[in-house]
Amino acid sequence: MAVKADQKLRRTLIRANREVRSGRPPFPTDVNVAVHKFPTWIGSPRRPVEMTQFWFRTRGCTFDRAGQCSMCNYGIGDEIDIDEVGTSVERILSRVRKGSFIYLSPSGSLLDDREVPAALRERLLACVAKREPTRFVFETRPETCTPERLDRVKEMLPDTTTLVCQLGLESWDPDVRSLCHLKPATQEPYVTVLGRLRERHYESIANLTLGGLGLSTREAYEDTLTSVRGAREAGFTTKIVFPLSAKSGTLLGWAHDRGLWNPVPLWVLVLLLAAAAQDRPGPDGAGDLGVSWFNPQIDDVVKSRPDGCDVCRPHLVDVLNRFRQSPEQRVLDDGLDWRGCGCLAQAIELLATDHHRRYPDRLAEIAERWEYERRDAGDREPLPLL
Ligand code: SF4
Ligand SMILES: [Zn+2]
Questions:
Q1: pLDDT tens digits for 51-77?
Q2: Which atom of ligand 1 lies nearest, measured to the CA of 73?
Q3: Which residues lie below 8 Å from residue 233, measured CB to CB, with a gap of 6+?
Q4: Ligand 1 site: residues with CB under 6 angstroms?
């Protein structure tokens, strides 16, 4: 597809995304902070640790406001009172055991001054530093990873803390990233930021999605496999695969409601991980892959998820949970030794099928449908009284 047509398509999808997200309910202003503890595994060989994740209220992700992520349903909110939110987070953070594993998360990017004003970030980092965490993880967009901000985080945290920066790469293919996920960043900022992280001895995590808007199951599988390999080659320490669900308030959810997008079967995730893990097992058998979001509950937000049938679903969730604990090829091989139903065979067949249609055509169909519905809604709007 010509570049000009790509740009027009992207602009239409962004307009659609902005309109769809505008219907999300805002964060309640009486909740400033939420804490969750998760069992997770770190290091090589992997060992179990508990991660304490802090979420704090902000006005929401700047990039989400701009309609730049087709799959994200993160919240939106009013402008915050820095003192009020800072005091709430400090109160809870100061109770965390010293030497914990801390994850500090706003509703988007920790290093984005528009979302997390520098004064608030400094205050919270000072509080995190007092807990002397063994690991400190935060997520941010590459656009926000300036040398100054990365230096400042490093300066503020103790030397004994391992710093981990998580970046939403989504796809290694800049066209898929830009058209399916609506993220405008090209390859260059990711590579530049990786270099900056390496120089400062940060670990890095690449978030990669499986099943972006417009991708067929086969395209999704190939895109994620290429992305794991690309991110690995580029030097990301860990690659985490996020299979996408249809969530309300997202363009993905909107397309799903109209039969224009579906999550990939859960077996495809297992097949993908098996292919990607096989490439490079570590010396101890543990690889560099992680997996998340594979078992969301169906509710008002999650309308449809990557799934199996009632017979294989418990098996799949068990395999994926075990893989999270030990990201080893043998766990997936055991999981793929399955005769309980026909879903695995169907998934393999789906991956072998070429539908002869490519994702730009499906995206164009989604964009046309949105424009058609807008026109239709416009036609039905009552004429203004003169
Ligand atoms: S995925 Fe990240 S950058 Fe994109 S809208 Fe969500 S929080 Fe923002
Ligand atoms: Zn099944």
A1: 999 999 999 999 999 999 999 988 788
A2: 6
A3: none
A4: 61, 63-64, 69, 72, 74, 108, 141, 168
